[in-house]
């Protein structure tokens, strides 16, 4: 059978035809993904995800391109989505690290933790509650999202913005003194 015939059979629910299409294209797909990711493990994971998406959406394949081209486009989109997610996670990790640094700086500079709590107290509930749940009580972003019945991304955004507001507040309160994170040598 030709590829077009395999595709038509797969669209009609023929599992053998679908398996044949995947068998014919799997090696090509994995090699492409290895070149994209530089990781065999990540390439194989993405290949599996690609196959799953292809199974779910086989009826949407219009046949204007080769089946392998369609698989590559799915794999590429999955890879890009994965990279975006990694960037977001890295951003939130940096933000969490920044809060830990603020805590450390406040403690090491003999700053009263009371000032930090006072600054938190000036925040609106929308920002204060997620910060307290995340950094004081140690809940994960998804747990906080479930508790507050808001999207996880909204929780992350509010924690990040709230921390920025606390930093600004602490720096304004320290006018005439050294801002948190600065030493005599830095000023």
UniProtKB/TrEMBL annotation:
<dbReference type="InterPro" id="IPR013324">
    <property type="entry name" value="RNA_pol_sigma_r3/r4-like"/>
</dbReference>
<dbReference type="InterPro" id="IPR036388">
    <property type="entry name" value="WH-like_DNA-bd_sf"/>
</dbReference>
<feature type="domain" description="RNA polymerase sigma-70 region 2">
    <location>
        <begin position="21"/>
        <end position="88"/>
    </location>
</feature>
<keyword id="KW-0731">Sigma factor</keyword>
<keyword id="KW-0805">Transcription regulation</keyword>
<dbReference type="GO" id="GO:0016987">
    <property type="term" value="F:sigma factor activity"/>
</dbReference>
<dbReference type="Pfam" id="PF04542">
    <property type="entry name" value="Sigma70_r2"/>
</dbReference>
<dbReference type="InterPro" id="IPR013325">
    <property type="entry name" value="RNA_pol_sigma_r2"/>
</dbReference>
<dbReference type="InterPro" id="IPR014284">
    <property type="entry name" value="RNA_pol_sigma-70_dom"/>
</dbReference>
<dbReference type="InterPro" id="IPR013249">
    <property type="entry name" value="RNA_pol_sigma70_r4_t2"/>
</dbReference>
<dbReference type="InterPro" id="IPR007627">
    <property type="entry name" value="RNA_pol_sigma70_r2"/>
</dbReference>
<comment type="similarity">
    <text>Belongs to the sigma-70 factor family. ECF subfamily.</text>
</comment>
<dbReference type="Pfam" id="PF08281">
    <property type="entry name" value="Sigma70_r4_2"/>
</dbReference>
<feature type="domain" description="RNA polymerase sigma factor 70 region 4 type 2">
    <location>
        <begin position="116"/>
        <end position="163"/>
    </location>
</feature>
<protein>
    <submittedName>
        <fullName>RNA polymerase sigma factor SigY</fullName>
    </submittedName>
</protein>
<dbReference type="GO" id="GO:0003677">
    <property type="term" value="F:DNA binding"/>
</dbReference>
<dbReference type="InterPro" id="IPR039425">
    <property type="entry name" value="RNA_pol_sigma-70-like"/>
</dbReference>
<dbReference type="GO" id="GO:0006352">
    <property type="term" value="P:DNA-templated transcription initiation"/>
</dbReference>
<keyword id="KW-0804">Transcription</keyword>
């Amino acid at each position: 059978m030709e590829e077009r015939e395999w595709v038509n059979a797969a669209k009609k629910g023929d599992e053998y035809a679908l398996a044949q299409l995947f068998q014919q294209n799997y090696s090509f797909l994995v090699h492409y993904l290895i070149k994209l990711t530089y990781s065999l493990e990540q390439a194989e994971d993405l290949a599996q995800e690609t196959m799953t998406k292809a199974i779910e959406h086989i009826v949407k394949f219009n046949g204007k391109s080769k089946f392998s081209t369609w698989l590559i486009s799915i794999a590429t989109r999955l890879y890009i989505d994965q990279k975006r997610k990694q960037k977001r996670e890295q951003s939130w990790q940096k933000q969490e690290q920044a809060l830990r640094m603020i805590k450390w700086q406040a403690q090491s500079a003999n700053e009263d933790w009371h000032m930090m709590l006072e600054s938190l107290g000036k925040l609106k509930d929308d920002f204060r509650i997620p910060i307290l749940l995340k950094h004081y009580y140690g809940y994960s972003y998804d747990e906080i999202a479930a508790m507050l019945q808001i999207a996880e991304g909204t929780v992350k955004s509010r924690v990040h913005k709230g921390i920025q507001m606390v930093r600004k507040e602490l720096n304004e309160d320290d006018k005439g003194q050294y801002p948190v994170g600065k030493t005599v040598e830095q000023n």
